[in-house]
Amino acid sequence: MTSLWLANRVEQAAPVDPPPESERSADVVVVGAGITGLITAVLLARAGKDVMVVEAFRVGAGATGNTTAKISLLQSTKLSKIVSKHGAKTARQYVEGNREGLEWLVGHCEAHGLSVQREDAFTYAQSEQGVAMVRDELEACEAAGLDVDWVDDADVPFPFHGAVRLPEQAQFDPMPLLDSLVVELEERGGRLVQGVRVQKVSTDGEGLTLDVRTQAGSEFEIRGKQCVLATGIPILDRGGFFARLKPQRSYCMAYKVPGTITRGMYISADSPTRSLRYAPTPDGDRLIAGGAGHPVGHEKSPSSSVQELDQWTKLHYPGAMQTHYWSAQDYSPIDELPYVGPILPGNEKIFVATGFDKWGMTNGTAAALALSSRILGGRMDWAEAFDSWSPHELSGIPKALQTNAQVGLYLARGWITPVTRIGNRTPEEGGVVSGPPWDLEARSVVDGCEYRVSPVCPHLGGIVNWNDADESWECPLHGSRFAPDGTLLEGPATRNLTAAR
């Protein structure tokens, strides 16, 4: 399962040994080599900071390399949700931050000769029931200062009942952007260390100590004055961001389609979500269809929703042949606004950037602009809408209570349900089974190989569930994911599942 963006890339093997001791310190340590982390690192390096980027896998391995890569200020029904909770002023600040993110991205790509396609963006209704939602988004966009209009018809083959249109947005392949950022970072004296996972961050009077572990198992320390966690969800529990975010999994497929592929970037307001764009490739344009989303670890059989998306695409694009399939994880904030800033109020040593709610190209870049400015002693005018700690979070309290009540339910259910079906049978694909009471085991069969690991998530003790679309284990509490053999794929956990007893 490899995204269109990551396919056919020649990656260097992760280093087996830790870097020399002389290279284990920096002014700022950035954790995560996606769009947010690398732009933050480059902006700081341009200002003369000594910067190190630490990445658990490889550049772009997280959300950035598995996105639809739309660079748009029209973001489904996002603005109508923000306006209803926070008002037009905050929505305008949110838009302004995203606008600066878009302009920075497009400007950087143009300056480096990277391909960007300028296309109109549409939030559309795929049924009569969805029209009211799209009308609400139109009003919110106008209140937030976007130059949108309403269209009744579009040259598309799928059900269409009107849309909000925002002209001159953008789309691209994000990996050449990341490659250019790595080159500039190193030219400016910064360093990138791949295959190294941060497991703990400690503070003292002089700065920070990061405890890290290589993929080969070597452990060492990195020293820094400040740290930026650009890891999707913060890997530290300080600030309780794991309880302020809802992890979401979504899926994408690329297709070779006979004839002309739909131009423009489309996303439905009503369910099930359908997201479409085209992507130029050396072998002709591809159609990208996305959707089938679900809260991480909560879906009994994600593969059925993925199959439904595939069938929908082939119905409306006859002759479409799937060439790539991938998935990504995003984090929805309880109050609809991203969290960008100190991990705790008044803490100017550790910073977070999270809660981009599937719109990480513009939000991630805006976060990098806001964080780098703050670390350098400045502040963006629109940054209030992105604050990691702000009174606007009060609007998210009801949703937070609901979300965390659900977390408690899944914690209890995860431990109790396997005990009610005691047996020694390995599930057909994957599942948690019980031998003696409370002796739980996660078993899976992938490509003919059987794996047995502990199902207890090392973050807060949730019991993982099997994702039959991704062939991975997912914790329904806070979204940690693991390979069939227990290897950690993404946090907030920082360690693998342990071997079965």
Automatic annotation (TrEMBL):
Assigned keywords, A-Z: 2Fe-2S, Iron, Iron-sulfur, Metal-binding
One function term, GO molecular function aspect: monooxygenase activity
One GO CC term on file: cytoplasm
TM spans (from-to): none
Xref: InterPro entries: FAD-dep_OxRdtase, FAD/NAD-bd_sf, Rieske_2Fe-2S, Rieske_2Fe-2S_sf
Segments forming domain Rieske: 447-501
Pfam families found in the cross-reference section: DAO (PF01266), Rieske (PF00355)
PANTHER family tied to this protein: RIESKE 2FE-2S IRON-SULFUR PROTEIN YHFW-RELATED, SARCOSINE DEHYDROGENASE-RELATED
Protein name: FAD-dependent oxidoreductase
